[in-house]
Structure formats: structure tokens, C-alpha cells
Amino acid sequence: MIDSLKQGNKTTLFWLFSLLAVWMAQATWIDQLNPYYLSILIYAGINIILAVSLNLVNGFTGQFSMGHAGFMSVGGYFSAFLTTTYLAKNPELMSEFQSFLVFLGSLLAGGTIAALVGYGVGLPSLRLKGDYLAIVTLGFGEIIRVVVLNLDVVGGARGLPNIPGFSNFGWVYSGVMICIFVIWRIIHSSYGRGFLAVREDEIAAEAMGINTTQVKVRAFVIGSFFAGIAGGLFAHTLRYLNPQTFDFNRSFEIIIMVVLGGMGSITGSVVAAVFLTTLRELLRPLQEWTHIDFRMVIYSLMLIFTMLLRPQGLLGTRELFQRRKQLEPGVTP
Amino acid sequence: MIELVQHLINGLSMGSIYALIALGYTLVFGILQLINFAHGDIYMVGAFAGFYAIRFFGFAEHPSWLALGVTLLFAMLGSGCLGWCIERLAYRPLRRSPRINALITAVGVSLLLEFSGQLIFGADPKFFPQILIFDGGWSFGELKLNPLQILIFLISIALMLALDWLIFRTRMGRAMRATSFNPECAALMGIPTDQVISLTFVLGSALAGAAGVLVGLAYPKIDPLMGVLPGLKAFVAAVLGGIGNVRGAVAGAMILGLSEEFLVGYGAPTFRDALAFGLLIIILLFKPTGLFGIKRAEKV
Known about the structure:
The complex is a heterodimer. By secondary structure, chain A is mainly α. Chain A has 13 helices and no strands.
């Protein structure tokens, strides 16, 4: 990062400024916002992290994973378990700084555990391709849910209540910024070209000396890590976790964000995540009026029509605000 | 010993239901190399078609063998039509696009059926009326047999034999096998491949619809999400037997039904739903072609 700053890399500068802006907003005016709008904003942020991290696996590396909610639940449960037990041991908590450290530590721990689980899941299953991979990841997502359901330490089917509400706008959008930055930098590095190569043609990539299984597993582990972080943020925003929250529909919601925004477009995922989170709230009055949940019907129709009419999604593999392709100085075509 | 036989019978009757669903997966995969995610939900629609047929004809008051036959027929017709529509509207336009797009569409169709099912049929479970009454059970000493389970097993076997005959003994079946072997070549030989593919969907869906009614007989509670887990498990069964292999799918389904029953009977009932996925992962890792599959080399 320091190196890229020295070279005057604009993305890095932009990233630092936006991180600063997030905390400025958190410190000054964000709490005056209508709490309902604020909560929509926060859930949109969590969905952005999920969608962008899944895009690294599904879009950039071309491995169709359907178990993202499973990793989210691992991270969420683990970090929530850490903070609740810590709070139970030290009830007369706590200074601002102390809770900051506890939350940061538990978030990172949750992300790490999710990444480890992702490694355990990815190593065997990423040898499979296409449809098989989709089903196996779906299966692993379900297995994770069944295991959590049978874990009494975290409440089992009753769920895990009384999670401290550490999370806020600043935390969530720092997570968003870090996630986007990390994945953006990976994709635009020579190392990340390997990811794209695997997506474009696995056999050719292998012939060019890329260890395809390793690349896939790495993408999977990074994706799972951020899913775990998102799970931790989600847990400390909602303050209650239930295994049912992380069922297949949750994974599907993330998939439709990625597909709709364009598999292989970070900004596309961001736009789609914000759009779908808002859409859900816009549909709420309709649902209260008719007592019917139209949301999933609309989502599934959207998915089918996207595939029929615009299979590359909203943005395809391009990015918003991306200038036309230009050659780097010193490179002769 | 008695307990063992009891579990064996339960397992076989559950396995035969998985087999009816698995056949649809394996038929469609054999021809299109597409996993029809919506197949489990077609099975659900079949159960509901049967349910409404019973209500329409008032079979609940007059249980008879004829009632069973008519209900089965209507369920198979309903789900067959649905299968045809899905193929025609959602999958055919995507036949030339990358496989991942077809997969995403299939997931979309599956969710569309589940949730529009909740809109149309209502989200609460419905009670499937008894259309066949047996006085008590048959018992051989300690062993108690539930006639319904035997019936499910027999009907499934009959349907499977009919399918087997259709595929291996008729002209239409030969066309299906040719299309599965090489669609372009089959088209050049004058086989109407589009019609063959439609027929395959109809056949697979009709079998799933029959499975829906049979499940309704034995476990009389149906709801719009009932197809999700049996669908996934039947897919596992199809992979276990080597996907694309019709007889293998039946064998795989029986193995899955039995192992699930024995897990519930002698081990950990809460992990029942995890077993199928665990099994799937193990097969795909060690023998991705399944027990009876043929290895196809990957070409550039």
C-alpha cells in the first residue's frame, strides 16, 4: 500500500479518502439520519461486502459457488460468540476503546474461521466444475447450517440472542471500503490475472503454468473471509442470530446481486446490492397490504429474465466510471 | 432382526420415491448436460395437481383403486405439462449459451415455482386426503407391514419398468438415446431433436408428478417447499448411480434411501439431511462418474 501511495496510485488515494469520509460521517451527521434509512444503508453495506466477495469467486474466477451464506454464518456466529462470552465475563464493560478492540478482534477472528472453513470446503470441492461445484457448495452451505442448528453453545435452533450492538455505519462501510479495495487490487495485479485466466479458459491457463486449483482455492478463501466479516457485522447490527437466517435463500439473494450486476464487475455488484436492498424495503408496504411475500417471486423472475435478455448482467465485466481501455505508458502494442 | 427388516422396507419405499425423481434428473442430464434444478419443484407441483384432482372429483369420500389411478394420471399430466412449458420457455432459448447461464436460469425457475407455489397454493402445509383405505396393516408375527409402502414400491417399480421399456425397446427411445449420444449427428439423421428433448422433459416430469402423489399417500402433508430436499437428494442419487445412466439412477436412489433409513434408525437422526450431501461430496471426489457411469475425457 505504501508503495502504491509513493507511485501516486489514484485508487489507493481515493480509497484512503473515502475511508476517512466514512468515519467523518459517522462522527458528525450520520446519527441524525432517520433510523430506518440508516438501517437500510447499513444492510446495503453488508450486502455489498457479500456481493463483492462472492463476485471474486463467481465472477472473476468463474467458479459458481452457491454456499456463501454458510460462510457468512460461520463468521457471524463465531464473532458473536466471542463478544457475547467476553461481555458475560466482564459485565462492567467497557471503555469505548476496549469495545473497539474486542469488536475488531472478534470480527477478524470470525473472518479467519470462515476463511479456514472455506479452505476446508474449497480444497476438495474446487476440483469439480460447473454444475457439480454449484451443488456441492450448496450442500456444504446446508451442512454448515445443520451443524450450527445442532450446536448448543450458540443456541442451536433457538438462536443466539443478546449480541452487543457494536456495529454501526462507520464499521460497516469501513468493511465495504476494505473489501472493495482488496479485491480491486487483487484483480488488477499480475497475480489476479491468474484468476481471470482460470475463468476464461481453465485448460489454457493450466498450460500457461497457472496452478488452477490453487488459484480457485485462494479466491474461495478470500471470498469466505469477507463473507465471515460481513456475517460478523450483520450479527452485531441485528443483535440476534438464527440458523434459519442463513439458509439457501440468503445465498440465492447474494447470487442474484452478483448475476444482476454483472459477473466480473465490482461496481456492478455494488449497484445491484444497493438496488436489491432498497427494492426489498420498497416492496414491504405491498407485502403488508397483501400479506404475501412477493420478494422471492420477483427475484426469481428477475434472474430468469436477466439470463434470457441480458445474460452478462447490468455491466458485464466492465466497471462503472471506467475509462475506455488505454495503454499503459511505455507499453508498445 | 424384525427391526432390520422394517428399516429395510422403509428404506426401499423411500428409495423408490427418490428413484422416480432421480430418473428425471438423469434423463434430462443425459440429453442436455443440464441439471434441472426445478425438478424437485415439479414433483411438488405434481403432488398439488393430485391434491386438486382429488378435491375436484371428491375422491376423499369414495376411496377406491380407480381414484388412485385417476389421481396419478392427473398429477402426471399436470407436472408433464409444466415440464414441457419450462423447457419451451426457459431452457430452449438458452440452449446455445454457456452452461452457467442455463444453470442460473434453472435455479431461477426452481425458486419461481417454490414461491409462486406459496402464492397460489398458500404457504401452510395441506393435508393430502386418503384415497385408499386398508383395514389395518398386514402383520407376519412381529413384523408389521404398511400396505401403502408396499404399494408405493410396486407402483414405482411398474413405472420404472415402463420407462425402461420405452427407452430401450421403442423407436422413440432409440431417438432419445441417439440425441443423448450426439445431438447434431442425430439431427442430421432426421431425428427431430427438439421434440425428443421436449418429450424427455415431459417423461421426467411425469415420473416426478407420480412420485408427488405417492409421497402424499404415505406422508400426507404437502407444502410448496416440500420439493427442495427430496429434489436435491434425488440429484445425489442420480450422481451416485452415474448421471445420465437410467438404471444407475434407480440403484443410486435405493442405496440413498436405505442408508438414510439406517442412519435414522441406528445413528443420528438430526444429521439425516446432511448425509446426502456428505455422500455426494465423497462420490464426486473419489469417483466423479458415479458407480455405473462412463468416463468421458475432457476435450479442449
